[in-house]
Amino acid sequence: MTRKPPSGVSPRKARLKTAKKRIATAFLIGFCLLSLFRLWAASAVSFEEEATKKEKTSGLTFLPVIFYTPETKWTLGGGGLFYFRATKDKDVSRPANIKFIAVYTQRRQTNFELNPDFYLAKGYHVQANIQYSDFPDQFYGIGSGTTGDMKEPFTSRFWKLSVEALKKVHGPLNAGFQYFFDDTKLTEVEDGGLLESPNTPGSSGGTASGLGCLMTYDSRDSIFYPTAGSFHQFSVTAFGGALGSDFTYNRFYLELRKYFRFSYAHCLAFQTRFLFQAGDPPFWRLGLLGGAESMRGYYLGRYRDKNMVVLQAEYRWAPIFWRLGLAAFAALGDVAATLGRFDLGQFKYTYGFGLRFVIDPKQRLHLRLDFGFGKETSGVYFTASEAF
Protein backbone atom coordinates (compact mmCIF):
# COMPACT_ATOMS: atom_id res chain seq x y z
CA MET A 1 0.00 0.00 0.00
CA THR A 2 1.38 3.39 -1.00
CA ARG A 3 1.31 6.10 1.64
CA LYS A 4 1.27 9.86 1.12
CA PRO A 5 3.92 11.65 3.17
CA PRO A 6 2.68 14.69 5.12
CA SER A 7 3.87 17.97 3.73
CA GLY A 8 3.25 21.66 4.42
CA VAL A 9 1.61 23.85 1.81
CA SER A 10 2.84 27.39 1.33
CA PRO A 11 0.29 30.22 0.96
CA ARG A 12 1.43 30.72 -2.63
CA LYS A 13 0.82 27.07 -3.51
CA ALA A 14 -2.54 27.16 -1.74
CA ARG A 15 -3.60 30.20 -3.78
CA LEU A 16 -2.40 28.50 -6.97
CA LYS A 17 -4.35 25.35 -6.13
CA THR A 18 -7.51 27.38 -5.46
CA ALA A 19 -7.07 29.27 -8.74
CA LYS A 20 -6.70 26.00 -10.66
CA LYS A 21 -9.91 24.67 -9.11
CA ARG A 22 -11.80 27.83 -10.06
CA ILE A 23 -10.46 27.75 -13.61
CA ALA A 24 -11.38 24.06 -13.96
CA THR A 25 -14.89 24.70 -12.60
CA ALA A 26 -15.41 27.66 -14.94
CA PHE A 27 -14.14 25.58 -17.86
CA LEU A 28 -16.54 22.73 -17.03
CA ILE A 29 -19.53 25.06 -16.73
CA GLY A 30 -18.64 26.79 -19.98
CA PHE A 31 -18.19 23.47 -21.75
CA CYS A 32 -21.58 22.25 -20.54
CA LEU A 33 -23.32 25.45 -21.63
CA LEU A 34 -21.59 25.30 -25.01
CA SER A 35 -22.71 21.69 -25.46
CA LEU A 36 -26.31 22.65 -24.73
CA PHE A 37 -26.12 25.59 -27.15
CA ARG A 38 -24.69 23.41 -29.93
CA LEU A 39 -27.45 20.84 -29.43
CA TRP A 40 -30.03 23.61 -29.57
CA ALA A 41 -28.55 25.25 -32.66
CA ALA A 42 -28.10 21.94 -34.49
CA SER A 43 -31.81 21.30 -34.95
CA ALA A 44 -34.32 23.33 -36.95
CA VAL A 45 -37.32 21.17 -35.98
CA SER A 46 -39.73 22.60 -33.40
CA PHE A 47 -40.59 20.73 -30.21
CA GLU A 48 -44.22 20.35 -31.27
CA GLU A 49 -43.28 18.94 -34.69
CA GLU A 50 -40.83 16.49 -33.13
CA ALA A 51 -43.35 15.33 -30.55
CA THR A 52 -45.86 14.38 -33.27
CA LYS A 53 -43.38 12.28 -35.22
CA LYS A 54 -43.45 8.52 -35.12
CA GLU A 55 -41.87 7.24 -31.92
CA LYS A 56 -38.28 6.10 -32.34
CA THR A 57 -37.53 2.57 -31.18
CA SER A 58 -33.93 3.37 -30.31
CA GLY A 59 -31.59 6.27 -29.77
CA LEU A 60 -28.16 7.20 -28.44
CA THR A 61 -27.12 10.25 -26.42
CA PHE A 62 -23.39 10.79 -25.95
CA LEU A 63 -21.76 13.37 -23.68
CA PRO A 64 -18.03 14.11 -23.77
CA VAL A 65 -16.35 14.47 -20.37
CA ILE A 66 -13.40 16.77 -19.68
CA PHE A 67 -12.32 18.32 -16.38
CA TYR A 68 -9.28 19.15 -14.24
CA THR A 69 -8.60 18.59 -10.53
CA PRO A 70 -5.31 18.62 -8.61
CA GLU A 71 -5.85 14.95 -7.71
CA THR A 72 -6.39 13.75 -11.29
CA LYS A 73 -4.95 16.54 -13.46
CA TRP A 74 -6.75 16.47 -16.84
CA THR A 75 -9.49 13.87 -17.22
CA LEU A 76 -10.99 12.80 -20.54
CA GLY A 77 -13.79 10.42 -21.34
CA GLY A 78 -17.41 10.13 -22.28
CA GLY A 79 -20.79 8.95 -21.12
CA GLY A 80 -24.32 8.69 -22.30
CA LEU A 81 -27.48 6.68 -22.66
CA PHE A 82 -28.65 4.20 -25.28
CA TYR A 83 -32.32 3.16 -25.35
CA PHE A 84 -34.02 0.48 -27.44
CA ARG A 85 -36.80 -2.10 -27.43
CA ALA A 86 -35.68 -5.35 -25.81
CA THR A 87 -38.83 -7.27 -26.72
CA LYS A 88 -41.51 -7.33 -29.42
CA ASP A 89 -44.20 -7.82 -26.77
CA LYS A 90 -46.70 -4.98 -27.37
CA ASP A 91 -47.69 -5.04 -23.70
CA VAL A 92 -44.22 -3.74 -22.81
CA SER A 93 -44.39 0.01 -23.37
CA ARG A 94 -41.16 1.00 -21.64
CA PRO A 95 -37.83 0.97 -23.50
CA ALA A 96 -34.75 -0.82 -22.26
CA ASN A 97 -31.79 1.47 -21.72
CA ILE A 98 -28.09 1.35 -20.94
CA LYS A 99 -26.28 4.22 -19.21
CA PHE A 100 -22.50 4.31 -19.37
CA ILE A 101 -19.49 6.43 -18.48
CA ALA A 102 -15.75 5.91 -18.91
CA VAL A 103 -12.97 8.34 -17.98
CA TYR A 104 -9.19 8.23 -17.90
CA THR A 105 -6.95 10.75 -16.18
CA GLN A 106 -3.52 12.19 -16.83
CA ARG A 107 -2.35 10.27 -13.74
CA ARG A 108 -3.50 6.95 -15.23
CA GLN A 109 -6.62 6.71 -13.09
CA THR A 110 -9.71 5.01 -14.45
CA ASN A 111 -13.43 4.92 -13.81
CA PHE A 112 -15.91 2.82 -15.82
CA GLU A 113 -19.60 2.31 -15.10
CA LEU A 114 -22.36 0.47 -16.98
CA ASN A 115 -26.04 0.47 -16.01
CA PRO A 116 -28.26 -1.81 -18.15
CA ASP A 117 -32.00 -1.63 -17.43
CA PHE A 118 -34.18 -4.12 -19.35
CA TYR A 119 -37.99 -4.29 -19.50
CA LEU A 120 -38.79 -7.75 -20.85
CA ALA A 121 -41.82 -9.80 -21.89
CA LYS A 122 -44.21 -11.38 -19.36
CA GLY A 123 -43.60 -8.66 -16.78
CA TYR A 124 -39.90 -9.27 -16.13
CA HIS A 125 -37.61 -6.36 -15.30
CA VAL A 126 -33.84 -6.74 -14.83
CA GLN A 127 -31.39 -3.96 -14.07
CA ALA A 128 -27.76 -3.95 -13.00
CA ASN A 129 -24.84 -1.72 -12.12
CA ILE A 130 -21.30 -2.73 -13.08
CA GLN A 131 -18.42 -0.51 -12.05
CA TYR A 132 -14.64 -0.58 -12.05
CA SER A 133 -12.74 2.26 -10.44
CA ASP A 134 -9.16 3.18 -9.68
CA PHE A 135 -9.81 6.77 -8.76
CA PRO A 136 -9.11 9.36 -6.03
CA ASP A 137 -11.79 10.06 -3.43
CA GLN A 138 -12.27 11.97 -0.18
CA PHE A 139 -13.05 10.70 3.31
CA TYR A 140 -14.22 13.02 6.08
CA GLY A 141 -14.79 10.44 8.76
CA ILE A 142 -18.02 8.82 9.87
CA GLY A 143 -20.93 10.71 11.37
CA SER A 144 -23.05 13.81 11.00
CA GLY A 145 -20.68 16.14 12.85
CA THR A 146 -17.52 15.77 10.76
CA THR A 147 -15.77 19.01 9.73
CA GLY A 148 -14.12 20.12 6.53
CA ASP A 149 -10.60 20.03 8.00
CA MET A 150 -11.01 16.27 8.58
CA LYS A 151 -10.81 15.63 4.83
CA GLU A 152 -8.46 12.81 3.86
CA PRO A 153 -7.65 12.06 0.23
CA PHE A 154 -7.48 8.38 -0.66
CA THR A 155 -7.52 6.15 -3.71
CA SER A 156 -9.32 2.83 -3.94
CA ARG A 157 -9.41 0.16 -6.61
CA PHE A 158 -12.68 -1.76 -6.70
CA TRP A 159 -15.12 -3.86 -8.70
CA LYS A 160 -18.81 -3.43 -7.94
CA LEU A 161 -21.84 -5.35 -9.12
CA SER A 162 -25.50 -5.01 -8.18
CA VAL A 163 -28.39 -6.86 -9.82
CA GLU A 164 -32.15 -6.51 -9.41
CA ALA A 165 -34.53 -9.03 -10.96
CA LEU A 166 -38.27 -8.36 -10.69
CA LYS A 167 -41.51 -9.95 -11.89
CA LYS A 168 -44.82 -8.16 -12.18
CA VAL A 169 -47.19 -9.45 -9.48
CA HIS A 170 -50.30 -7.36 -10.08
CA GLY A 171 -50.69 -4.05 -11.89
CA PRO A 172 -47.79 -1.77 -10.88
CA LEU A 173 -46.66 -4.10 -8.08
CA ASN A 174 -43.43 -6.08 -8.66
CA ALA A 175 -41.40 -8.49 -6.51
CA GLY A 176 -38.05 -10.20 -6.81
CA PHE A 177 -34.53 -10.26 -5.43
CA GLN A 178 -31.35 -8.20 -5.47
CA TYR A 179 -27.67 -9.00 -5.09
CA PHE A 180 -24.74 -6.76 -4.15
CA PHE A 181 -21.04 -7.52 -4.53
CA ASP A 182 -17.97 -5.35 -4.30
CA ASP A 183 -14.31 -6.06 -3.80
CA THR A 184 -12.32 -3.03 -2.62
CA LYS A 185 -8.64 -2.38 -2.03
CA LEU A 186 -7.27 0.91 -0.69
CA THR A 187 -4.16 1.70 -2.71
CA GLU A 188 -3.31 5.13 -1.34
CA VAL A 189 -4.20 6.68 2.03
CA GLU A 190 -2.92 9.49 4.19
CA ASP A 191 -0.29 8.69 6.81
CA GLY A 192 -1.75 8.81 10.31
CA GLY A 193 -5.29 9.30 8.98
CA LEU A 194 -8.55 7.64 9.92
CA LEU A 195 -8.28 5.18 7.05
CA GLU A 196 -5.05 3.86 8.54
CA SER A 197 -6.88 3.02 11.76
CA PRO A 198 -8.45 -0.43 12.27
CA ASN A 199 -11.27 1.39 14.08
CA THR A 200 -12.64 2.45 10.70
CA PRO A 201 -14.58 -0.55 9.30
CA GLY A 202 -13.23 -1.50 5.89
CA SER A 203 -9.96 0.43 6.24
CA SER A 204 -8.08 -2.72 5.19
CA GLY A 205 -10.31 -3.26 2.18
CA GLY A 206 -12.27 -6.43 1.65
CA THR A 207 -15.32 -7.97 0.00
CA ALA A 208 -18.97 -7.17 0.69
CA SER A 209 -21.54 -9.61 -0.67
CA GLY A 210 -25.26 -9.58 0.10
CA LEU A 211 -28.52 -11.12 -1.12
CA GLY A 212 -32.03 -9.92 -0.40
CA CYS A 213 -35.65 -9.49 -1.45
CA LEU A 214 -37.11 -6.48 -3.21
CA MET A 215 -40.55 -5.05 -3.89
CA THR A 216 -41.49 -2.06 -6.05
CA TYR A 217 -44.66 -0.19 -6.93
CA ASP A 218 -44.17 1.64 -10.22
CA SER A 219 -46.96 3.64 -11.88
CA ARG A 220 -44.77 6.34 -13.47
CA ASP A 221 -45.78 7.64 -16.88
CA SER A 222 -42.12 7.69 -18.00
CA ILE A 223 -38.88 6.15 -16.75
CA PHE A 224 -36.78 9.05 -18.11
CA TYR A 225 -38.91 12.06 -17.17
CA PRO A 226 -41.84 11.05 -14.94
CA THR A 227 -44.55 13.69 -14.51
CA ALA A 228 -47.32 11.59 -12.97
CA GLY A 229 -47.69 8.46 -10.86
CA SER A 230 -45.54 6.96 -8.14
CA PHE A 231 -42.46 4.86 -7.59
CA HIS A 232 -42.00 3.09 -4.25
CA GLN A 233 -39.30 0.57 -3.34
CA PHE A 234 -38.56 -1.56 -0.28
CA SER A 235 -35.72 -4.04 0.15
CA VAL A 236 -34.07 -6.14 2.85
CA THR A 237 -30.56 -7.47 2.21
CA ALA A 238 -28.29 -9.67 4.34
CA PHE A 239 -24.49 -9.58 4.05
CA GLY A 240 -22.43 -12.38 5.59
CA GLY A 241 -19.76 -15.02 5.34
CA ALA A 242 -22.07 -17.57 3.72
CA LEU A 243 -22.11 -15.31 0.64
CA GLY A 244 -18.35 -14.71 0.68
CA SER A 245 -18.58 -11.38 2.51
CA ASP A 246 -15.90 -10.13 4.92
CA PHE A 247 -18.54 -8.00 6.63
CA THR A 248 -21.71 -9.06 8.41
CA TYR A 249 -24.68 -6.70 8.50
CA ASN A 250 -28.27 -6.24 7.38
CA ARG A 251 -29.51 -3.46 5.10
CA PHE A 252 -33.06 -2.06 5.03
CA TYR A 253 -33.98 0.46 2.33
CA LEU A 254 -37.21 2.33 1.63
CA GLU A 255 -37.75 4.88 -1.13
CA LEU A 256 -40.97 6.79 -1.86
CA ARG A 257 -41.52 8.99 -4.92
CA LYS A 258 -44.60 10.90 -6.05
CA TYR A 259 -45.13 13.03 -9.16
CA PHE A 260 -47.82 15.67 -9.72
CA ARG A 261 -48.44 16.98 -13.24
CA PHE A 262 -50.12 20.39 -13.63
CA SER A 263 -49.77 20.50 -17.42
CA TYR A 264 -47.64 18.90 -20.10
CA ALA A 265 -44.68 21.12 -19.18
CA HIS A 266 -45.15 21.56 -15.41
CA CYS A 267 -44.45 18.89 -12.79
CA LEU A 268 -43.74 18.74 -9.05
CA ALA A 269 -41.73 15.72 -7.83
CA PHE A 270 -41.07 14.46 -4.29
CA GLN A 271 -38.68 11.79 -3.05
CA THR A 272 -37.98 10.35 0.40
CA ARG A 273 -35.17 7.86 1.07
CA PHE A 274 -34.58 5.85 4.25
CA LEU A 275 -31.52 3.64 4.73
CA PHE A 276 -31.11 1.66 7.97
CA GLN A 277 -28.26 -0.79 8.61
CA ALA A 278 -27.55 -3.09 11.54
CA GLY A 279 -24.14 -4.66 12.02
CA ASP A 280 -20.76 -3.54 10.70
CA PRO A 281 -20.82 -2.36 7.06
CA PRO A 282 -17.51 -1.08 5.59
CA PHE A 283 -17.16 2.68 5.28
CA TRP A 284 -17.73 2.59 1.51
CA ARG A 285 -21.15 0.91 1.96
CA LEU A 286 -22.46 3.34 4.57
CA GLY A 287 -25.21 5.80 3.71
CA LEU A 288 -23.52 8.47 1.58
CA LEU A 289 -24.98 11.96 1.58
CA GLY A 290 -24.52 14.04 -1.58
CA GLY A 291 -23.87 13.44 -5.26
CA ALA A 292 -25.73 14.00 -8.53
CA GLU A 293 -28.99 12.34 -7.46
CA SER A 294 -29.45 13.18 -3.78
CA MET A 295 -28.53 16.30 -1.76
CA ARG A 296 -26.99 17.97 -4.81
CA GLY A 297 -24.36 20.46 -3.69
CA TYR A 298 -22.60 18.10 -1.28
CA TYR A 299 -19.69 15.93 -2.33
CA LEU A 300 -20.83 12.29 -2.45
CA GLY A 301 -19.85 10.83 0.92
CA ARG A 302 -19.21 14.20 2.59
CA TYR A 303 -21.30 12.78 5.42
CA ARG A 304 -21.69 9.04 5.90
CA ASP A 305 -23.01 6.65 8.54
CA LYS A 306 -25.05 3.46 8.96
CA ASN A 307 -28.40 5.22 8.71
CA MET A 308 -29.52 7.96 6.34
CA VAL A 309 -32.66 10.00 5.71
CA VAL A 310 -33.13 12.29 2.69
CA LEU A 311 -36.19 14.29 1.63
CA GLN A 312 -36.16 16.29 -1.61
CA ALA A 313 -38.54 18.12 -3.90
CA GLU A 314 -38.15 19.45 -7.43
CA TYR A 315 -40.26 21.67 -9.64
CA ARG A 316 -39.77 20.97 -13.36
CA TRP A 317 -40.79 23.20 -16.23
CA ALA A 318 -39.82 21.74 -19.58
CA PRO A 319 -40.06 22.87 -22.20
CA ILE A 320 -40.34 26.59 -21.62
CA PHE A 321 -39.19 27.51 -25.09
CA TRP A 322 -38.67 24.96 -27.84
CA ARG A 323 -36.48 22.32 -26.13
CA LEU A 324 -35.19 24.33 -23.18
CA GLY A 325 -36.52 23.94 -19.65
CA LEU A 326 -35.80 24.84 -16.04
CA ALA A 327 -35.91 23.10 -12.69
CA ALA A 328 -35.66 24.22 -9.06
CA PHE A 329 -34.98 21.85 -6.18
CA ALA A 330 -34.44 21.69 -2.43
CA ALA A 331 -33.54 18.87 -0.03
CA LEU A 332 -33.04 18.00 3.63
CA GLY A 333 -31.00 15.05 4.86
CA ASP A 334 -28.67 13.64 7.45
CA VAL A 335 -26.89 10.51 8.63
CA ALA A 336 -26.68 8.91 12.07
CA ALA A 337 -25.17 5.89 13.82
CA THR A 338 -28.55 4.89 15.30
CA LEU A 339 -32.16 5.88 14.64
CA GLY A 340 -32.37 7.65 17.99
CA ARG A 341 -29.56 10.04 17.04
CA PHE A 342 -31.38 11.75 14.20
CA ASP A 343 -32.06 15.38 15.10
CA LEU A 344 -34.24 17.35 12.68
CA GLY A 345 -32.66 20.59 13.89
CA GLN A 346 -29.25 19.35 12.68
CA PHE A 347 -30.36 18.20 9.22
CA LYS A 348 -28.27 19.44 6.30
CA TYR A 349 -29.98 21.35 3.50
CA THR A 350 -29.39 21.97 -0.18
CA TYR A 351 -31.15 24.00 -2.83
CA GLY A 352 -30.48 24.88 -6.42
CA PHE A 353 -31.66 25.22 -9.98
CA GLY A 354 -31.03 23.50 -13.26
CA LEU A 355 -31.30 23.76 -17.02
CA ARG A 356 -32.99 21.10 -19.12
CA PHE A 357 -32.58 20.25 -22.79
CA VAL A 358 -35.09 17.88 -24.39
CA ILE A 359 -33.22 15.39 -26.58
CA ASP A 360 -36.15 13.14 -27.47
CA PRO A 361 -39.65 14.66 -27.01
CA LYS A 362 -41.42 11.29 -27.45
CA GLN A 363 -39.39 9.52 -24.77
CA ARG A 364 -39.14 12.74 -22.68
CA LEU A 365 -35.39 12.17 -22.48
CA HIS A 366 -33.54 15.21 -21.14
CA LEU A 367 -30.04 16.44 -20.52
CA ARG A 368 -29.71 18.22 -17.18
CA LEU A 369 -27.26 20.77 -15.88
CA ASP A 370 -27.78 21.35 -12.15
CA PHE A 371 -26.21 23.83 -9.74
CA GLY A 372 -26.60 22.76 -6.10
CA PHE A 373 -25.78 24.76 -2.96
CA GLY A 374 -25.51 23.73 0.68
CA LYS A 375 -23.87 25.17 3.79
CA GLU A 376 -20.39 26.28 2.65
CA THR A 377 -20.53 23.89 -0.30
CA SER A 378 -21.71 23.71 -3.91
CA GLY A 379 -21.68 21.36 -6.88
CA VAL A 380 -22.27 21.28 -10.64
CA TYR A 381 -23.79 18.20 -12.32
CA PHE A 382 -24.16 17.52 -16.06
CA THR A 383 -25.76 14.25 -17.10
CA ALA A 384 -28.64 12.57 -18.91
CA SER A 385 -32.00 11.78 -17.21
CA GLU A 386 -33.42 13.25 -14.01
CA ALA A 387 -32.12 12.83 -10.48
CA PHE A 388 -35.27 10.88 -9.50
Which key terms come to mind for this protein?
mainly beta; disordered N terminus; 17-stranded mixed beta sheet; about 400 residues; Porin
Walk me through this protein's architecture.
This protein has 388 residues and is mainly β. The chain has helices at residues 11-42, 47-51; strands at 2-4, 59-69, 73-84, 96-105, 110-119, 124-139, 152-170, 173-190, 206-218, 229-239, 249-261, 266-279, 287-289, 303-305, 307-321, 324-336, 348-360, 365-374, 377-384. It has a 17-stranded mixed β-sheet that branches. Strands 13-14 form a two-stranded antiparallel ribbon.
Question: With helices defined by DSSP (H or I, 4 residues minimum), what is the helix count?
Answer: 2
Strand content: over 45%
Poorly predicted runs of 5 or more residues: 2-7, 40-49
Helix/strand/pairing category: mainly beta
Round the mean pLDDT to the nearest integer and report it. Answer: 87
What's the number of structural domains?
A: 1
End-to-end gap: 38 Å
Radius of gyration: 21 Å
Write the layout of secondary structure elements.
Elements: E1 2-4, H1 11-42, H2 47-51, E2 59-69, E3 73-84, E4 96-105, E5 110-119, E6 124-139, E7 152-170, E8 173-190, E9 206-218, E10 229-239, E11 249-261, E12 266-279, E13 287-289, E14 303-305, E15 307-321, E16 324-336, E17 348-360, E18 365-374, E19 377-384
Parallel strand pairs: 1-8
Antiparallel strand pairs: 2-3, 3-4, 4-5, 5-6, 6-7, 7-8, 8-9, 9-10, 10-11, 11-12, 12-15, 13-14, 15-16, 16-17, 17-18, 18-19
